[in-house]
Amino acid sequence: MRIALFDSGIGGLTVLSHARRVLPSEEFLFFADRDHVPYGTKSVPAVRGYVREAFRFLVEKQGADAVVVACNTATSVAVDEMRRLYEVPIIGMEPAVKKALAQDGERRVLVTATPITINGEKLRRLVSAHDTHHLVDLLALPRLVEFAERREFVSPRVEEYLWNALAPYDLVHYSAVVLGCTHFNYFKDTLRRLLPKAVGFVDGNEGTVEELARRTGLCTMPAGTQMASCRFFESGRPVAGAEPLARIESYLARAARMEEIV
After folding, report:
1. Would the annotation count 39 as a binding residue?
2. Do 87 and 55 meet the contact criterion of CB atoms below 8 Å apart?
3. Cα separations (Å) of 40 from 73, 87, 195, 240?
4. 223 falls in which pLDDT band (50, 70, 90)?
5. pTM here?
6. CATH no. of 97-202
7. Check: CATH 3.40.50.1860 for 2-93+205-259?
8. What is the pLDDT of residues 79-89, one digit of tens each?
9. Catalytic residues
10. β-pairing verdict for 237-238 and 66-69
C-alpha cells in the first residue's frame, strides 16, 4: 500500500520514523511543504490552500492509497474539507488531550501547539468534550517550529525560549505536557531538563499510526530494525542528492532517539 504523510515541514518525520518501523512492508511518501512552513502563524485560508495543493500532488499525481496529515495545524483547519474531496482514508492528528487526561484525572495538563491549533475551534471542542474537571491549560509555542526547521534543538536560545514560555505555570501541579505539534517532539531532551520528573510527555504519533492501520486494514508489527521504503518530496519536488537526503536522515535519527524519552 502506498501511504503518504504530509506536513508543513519536517515535524511529520517524527510520525514517519515510527510508521516505517511498525509497517515495514508498506511504501511511504513523505511531503514536507518547505515552501510555506510554518503553517501555525499563517492565516486559515492560506493553510487550506497549501493543503489542497499537497493533496492534489499526493493523491492525484502520486496515487496515494491513504494520507496521514502529520500536522496538527493542517488537521485543525483543512482535514474535513479533504475528506469531502477525496475517497482515500485520511488520518488527521490532534493534540492527545483525551490520552493525557486519562492518565491522571487530578493534576493539570499543559497542551502545547501552534497558534492556529491553540485558537482553533477543533481544539476547543476537543477540550470541552474531555476536560470535565477543567484541568487543561493551552500554550502556543510557535518558535519551536522555526528552531526545528533549522535543526536548532539544543541551544541556549531554545532553552531560554522554553524557560520563559513555561515560567507562568507551576509545573509541580501538572501530570503531562501534550506535544500538540509534531515538530515539538524533537525537543523532548531539552524539555526533560526543564520539567519536573513527574511531568510526562504525551503525543499523538503512535495513536495516529494505529488509526492508519485500523482504517486501511493493515497490521502493525513490533518496531524493529527493518524499515519501509520512502520517497521524499519538498513542496512537490523530489528530494535527491546526498546532502538533502542526509539532512532528512539526521531528523529521522533524532526522532527515533526522542521517542525513547518519556
Report:
1. yes
2. no
3. 6, 27, 24, 27
4. confident
5. 0.91
6. 3.40.50.1860
7. yes
8. 999 999 999 99
9. 71, 181
10. unpaired
